[in-house]
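I have been asked to look over a protein record a colleague put together. Alongside the sequence sits a line of tokens, each denoting a local backbone shape. I have pasted the whole thing underneath without changing anything:
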Amino acid sequence: MPTPALHIRDLRKVYDTGVEALKGVSLDVAPGDFFALLGPNGAGKSTLIGVVSSLVNASSGDVQVFGIDVATQRSAAMRQIGLVPQEMNFNFFERPIDILTNYAGFYGIPRAQALARAEEELKSAQLWPKAFMMSRTLSGGMKRRLMIARAMMTRPKLLILDEPTAGVDIEIRRGMWKTLREVNAAGTTVILTTHYLEEAESLCRNLAIIDRGQIIEAGPMKTLLAKLDVEGFVFDIEGVLPAELPQLPNMRLVAPNDHTLTLEMPRSQDLNGVFAALSGAGIRVRSMRTESNRLEELFLRLTGDNKLPAAAGAH
């Protein structure tokens, strides 16, 4: 069995204020995985990332990155990690080429090698045309990609991203999804925290949900989503829905409008019967898609209250 990219056992963190942020967290992330860490505000996500990246000292427990102990071999462990924080933490009055080469210099990479690597990473992030412009002129999405490119300068085996798409529009977000998929496909293990649940479902193969300092669920995305016995479908209707809709047993109608019909139904429900009932009522379906709220429903069930994953800036 390969050495885990991240191995955490009985991790605890108690702050000086007495707050117990982590209560014996245990977690393994396989090498090459695309892993989601979800949790509401105050759940312990940021503390957990802080301990793994050596920014926060653990009270007790073990953390290993590719078999290297973070507490006793800090420098060696940190060479395995690239961290992309939520906040923009580079000098907006420096050029992207300088931001990357200077960052590499902190890790002892010779300047000639750093320049070549910076060109490679900026091209990979589709930022090479902006390499010699002031970073303050970059768009929000470009700045986010620049932070990923900077983290990749050390060729980390593990890339950790703390809500990398917070506050950006959907077009920029999906462009970043493409970048992250390419990074992962090249062999880098990726751990993502996000409050966009559809983002985790789209990108990640495995996930863990942390709440009140404890892991309450962990495993493959597909396995966890399969626990839901209800699934939603959105039907795009040709024309306008009639005033009287057909009776559909075992199904719940959700917010219909003139051109769209959304149904929640048991996962075992035969869709042929649905189409037959709609057709019998004179309703023609142009297209159908699944409703992308399954992970949100799972999250709410597991945490047992109405909290959603933390919004931007929460810990």
